[in-house]
Write a structure and sequence with these properties.
By secondary structure, the chain is an alpha+beta fold. The protein has one helix and five strands, in the order βββββα. The strands form two sheets. A three-stranded antiparallel sheet has the order 1-4-5. Strand 4 and strand 5 form a beta hairpin. It is elongated. It binds zinc ion (ZN).
Length: about 100
């Protein structure tokens, strides 16, 4: 296995070759020629309309930002399962508080 250099090689944009439903909701239609998000799913791809793509990307960007924060400041406790029983009070105050 090659070393991991990127976590986002499994996503891309392309244009729909024919009209189809968004894979997040059958109520969303992707028209022929329309830009869509493609996400690797095993040996095939899932395709999402741009509204769903924005939701997916926003959530993952937030998650990646949190992961980056942990990597940059490993002493901080950011994961819920690592927060002690006495809770958030145990966390250091933000620097500008
Ligand atoms: Zn959609």
């Amino acid at each position: 296995m090659p070393r991991v250099r990127s976590l986002v090689e499994r996503i891309s944009f392309d244009r729909a070759l024919r009209a189809h439903d968004c894979q997040a909701s059958a109520k969303h239609r992707v028209s022929k020629g329309e830009l869509r998000l493609k996400v690797r799913n095993g040996r095939s791809w899932d395709h999402y309309c741009l509204a769903c793509a924005q939701q997916i990307l926003r959530k993952d960007v937030a998650y990646l930002q949190m992961m980056l924060d942990v990597a940059a400041v490993p002493g901080q406790v950011l994961f819920a399962e690592e927060i002690p029983a006495d809770g958030v009070q145990a966390l250091p105050a933000p620097p500008d508080a």
